């Protein structure tokens, strides 16, 4: 039962029994470095060593707190016999106060009556010996006794009783009445006395003459000691505060006089809580008041006197000026509140506050001394000014209602140290990225400083600076000593400048209070760098706080010493020195003397392991300097720590040294009780002390935790936004909004944009993996612009704690559980969190990943069992049997979900990752190799047209990336990962691709399963992938997959429900007649989302037209469940408006149209008749995107396609949008591999208006796309060939109808040459291997050549092999990939120093010889004849098929 429940129980028992009534400095470590590896090794070495107990702990292993007691089964204390809880039980008092109120609580705990007179009276009364007090003493008791006596006497006389019997009854009545009336009177007397005493306490004051008498005697003894202590402390402070233009400031005289402070009166307030005592004290300190002194006291009286000597000048020229402060007087009215509790020292806190402004007086003579000094308070206005300043300083601190609180219990227990460090915060700064320039000139040389509270406070540490980069990698670990974790931590990112001050780039703020919620660990954080409210980059950092080990107090009061460790916090203090430079001594209390010949200007230097940690100020003109300076250092290994203190004079001459090992010094202090040590290399002695706070560094590791495994994925369904800010009002347009999801400075996904709409509707779902419960997301609504940067329209925060919670099991395992989905209409704010305009509507939810129980606890149990085995020989025969038992795999993970295993052998099972449909794929990009230097970023895209992770910018041809990004896999069978290397340009809209890798996710997971099944693989497999469209370009990748649990993909979000619908119009039957001749001239228009996508030709004079003229089109569908195609049949009229003959809705869900299967269906028209269509559905990645702002157009991008046999006969591919006046916008043709932007661009074609024409025109069609495997092919791992529609003709609509449009008509072709894409012919990608050559013609005098092969496609040289010297049979074995339109020109040349010579060439028609699944491998003869042959291998590349080389498995 917890404390709160126990308190509630106690309070309820009491309530049931009560009648119902109405209501610090730059922190470093002993290693002198921030290198993470060095510090981790030092701490690991310290942990491996045996821990020697501290001297203080060895002396007192168990400490019994004074006043503690044990109850066991005995009753001890009054509350063991009462229902009332102890007033020291704060939780019980709070519970009672909340239910009874303060007045009821005070009434309950009123003081009890004195019981001495009660016992005396009870001993004298006969009745009181036999009757309980509950049966007499009240008026109704007396009344009842009299009635009983009358009735009983009547009965006696009735039955013949005589006078004697009546007298006996009367005697008993008299005795009872006497006892009862005495008790009544006693109660009345006690009540009156109690009320009078309470009234006297509340209205009258008490004198404190007894304590004043005590103070008058004690003051004469204690005042000299107090004055000496004040002088020593003040001198140490004045040394630090002396301005540079003064030689020294010293407190040469100090006394508070012979008259003690006096307490004038005390008033006690009784109406307080039972555990609070409140008193008002009037006190005064008026030494010049002599009315209460005797003649002898007047003769020996000493007045307060303080002399501060300020020395001006240097050396022998200087002179001291005394400043005299005397005639002190002070009086005040102070309220003291003592709060008690039931543990030693039983006083928890003392609160003090002045009820009125205190009065003080003094005489200050800065010049002239006692004789000729002038009191500056005589200057008009100065005295009142000083008093106002004093009141202004003390008012907020302790003038009522403000109180000054002193934590007495904490100070006595040693648990509260308000000055020294109580723990160490380990800050691992990994890197920063995306830092923005702050200077117009020069480069960024960033470094990071650490502060508490704000950047103006003292610097606690800093990293090294990294030259000329916006993406620095620090990999540093800092140890920051903290007193508490209640303040925010500031990471200030700075730009180092030479010759001028460093410039701030921005600040990261982290609230240290949040560390308590996660066991003082926060890893994998990506903190945004903010400058004036705007993001200027991000910093990747980890935090781990280790509190100092403290003593543990048991319930019985026993104190267990803190756990020992070789790591901890050392607080080392240099107090003072004596007799420096000679043997001069002075009796009594040592006070530095000025003016002697042996005066020395000295300072102290403290070194830890040879590194300077503290240098005191120079204490001038004294052989007995006092500094009282301390330094705190985090010690990684105290067994290796050496301390050194050097005392030097102002001429750098050594006056003495002291050195010791920390363990030896600790023994001297705590065991031997030594305070002073003799100095070496000089005369004198030094006073030192230390404080050691051990810290157990369990869990510390120098390795990076930036790549934490994912804990789950956040699903965000962006519905719409309302009343957005219009940033294009000046240009006459409207904002083109989209939403992007930010995690720190990383964009983790974004929606499609909606043009010219301040109330956009997106209805788009994004999935964002999260790795920590602190990975809060920011949703930012942006306005798209073609040329300039996109503008922010507002942001809103999404806190993970609103949709998930952390759950801790009984054995300490932690996992994360999703809460109910959150639906919000969130108001937007500006970047600096000020009120913005507009709202955004979204629904957010959390789904966890597979959470397995950690094995650390099992390892610890095995280690403990081994230790017990060594200590107890009797268990040797039993323990090995437990260890040898085979490891049992858990059946369920922490969320309670069954774990899917794959059986490898009888004794080995692994988690079957391929059986999970969804999960988080982590991709680590290790290194990148490019043929030439580029400034690039590497991006991850999974089932998306936008990057979901982007690395930091780097420049070069050989790049070490070493960054990990994560993406969410919705459907393993359909998902494909694209890793794109993109050029970084000043124009952010230019997304030129340097190279890319496209990989099926299922193949990735299958490779992970193979590695898991191989016992020799202990580290992630690193594989090297060639970059498509980038000869000699390679990227090294490794992968991890975390399955998602408690997640089921909604059918509407399935990739199978997104793609291209091919519609072939077959016939119409029984159409209604619209003309006088009983027939119609029908044609059909097809609409998607109210936009017309296709129109057939007009068929004259028929009610049953058969569409035999290749009336086929393909339309992109974002979601086939919610997006039907509408067919409207019209009768064409030459004059006037066309007549509607009927409408039907064409649905093609998975139940109606099977994927990749051509289905013929008949649909009924609403006005009669039917329409027969042939439908083919191909799953493809489709994205809606406007090509320009403020112009109605659309771009469709498809990154996957179906096998060619799924398309059937001829078809038309139609763009999603049609402009007015016959304008046709083709689909975007910017695909990843082509080196063109992935975002797409519209291609305009002008159609024909008016009469129908028989001429054929080639019109651009939708872009061909890399193929997407069907579920069957994906499962087998086979590559699918590309399928590309080929344009054949364009047929315009007939007649003079008002709705004239152009039609894009295409049909398939058997020739691989005829491929097209919007804006031009598409070029398939081929992989070419140039193996060797033979029989080459000799071009050099030596009878040999230096041959190399140059490959050209069109007018562009796409590849060139290396040249091999002096051979006619070169062996190249070089491979590259390239796009080819038709002919690939191979030319072999002889390399010369000044001019290369042609040997021969071959123009190879690639597409005539290379077919899908049929590569070419053979010898090509060079022309002219007789110049040799070249051996090549050429194959079509499925751009979405995994191709790897040089796989490198992890080390064993």
What does this structure look like?
The radius of gyration is 46 Å and the shape is extended. The chain starts with a helix and ends with a strand. The strands form 18 sheets. Strands 2, 3, 4, 5, 6, 7, 8 and 9 form an eight-stranded antiparallel sheet that branches. Strands 40, 41, 42, 43, 44, 45, 46 and 69 form an eight-stranded antiparallel sheet that branches. The chain is of the alpha+beta class and 1452 residues long. It is built from 19 helices and 69 strands.
Q: How many strand elements?
A: 69
What's the helix count?
19
The rounded distance between the terminal residues' Cα atoms is 50 Å
Mean of residue pLDDT?
Answer: 76
Report the β-strand fraction as a percent range. 35-45%
The rounded Rg comes to 46 Å
Major β-sheet annotation: 8 strands, antiparallel
| Helicity, as a percent range | 10-25%
What structural category do the secondary elements indicate?
A: alpha+beta
Low-confidence stretches: 18-27, 57-77, 112-124, 584-597, 857-862, 871-885, 1185-1321, 1439-1452
Instruction: Please tell me what the overall shape is.
Output: extended
